[in-house]
Design goal:
The protein has two helices and eight strands; from the N terminus they run βαββββαβββ. The protein has about 130 residues and is α/β, with parallel strands linked by helices. It has a single domain, classed as Roll (2,3-Dihydroxybiphenyl 1,2-Dioxygenase, domain 1), CATH 3.10.180. The strands form two sheets. It has a four-stranded mixed sheet with strand order 1-4-3-2, with helices on one face. It is globular, with a radius of gyration of 16 Å.
Length: about 130
């Protein structure tokens, strides 16, 4: 059995690093890791996992956006986060309620689908 300690990063493919840096750093307000290895791979810290925003063509990959739901950002209030993104010019889908959590989807400038997410129902005790 493996001794997996955590997920180190999720690679996020982008075409335009300038737009990506603005979006992830300024619009979403994520902290840029000052030890990011280069201009074509910039890491943003979310508290429990790193988003490694990178240009695939400089790492021997073709660009393909992430599948929907790959990144879900936990926020205290989905409606409030949705309003803030919309005020910054980001198009956010309608908010939904699954009976367990609230969510609303949006895209980064390269079409990577991201989810605002907040679970409000406590987990069952076993």
């Amino acid at each position: 059995m493996l001794d997996v300690q955590r997920v180190d990063y999720i690679r996020v493919p982008v075409r335009d690093m300038e737009k990506a840096n603005h979006f992830y750093g300024e619009v979403l307000g994520l902290k840029r890791n000052p030890n990011s290895p280069g201009d074509d791979w910039v890491e943003y810290e979310t508290g429990n996992v790193t988003l490694a925003v990178m240009t695939p063509h400089t790492h021997d990959f073709e660009f393909t956006p992430l599948p929907p739901g790959t990144i879900a950002l936990r926020v205290p209030d989905v409606a409030e986060a949705k309003e803030k993104l919309e005020a910054a010019g980001v198009e956010v889908n309608d908010m939904w309620d699954s009976g367990v959590c609230h969510g609303a989807g949006f895209s980064d400038p390269d079409g990577n689908r991201i989810l605002l997410h907040h679970r409000y129902k406590p987990y069952e005790q076993s």
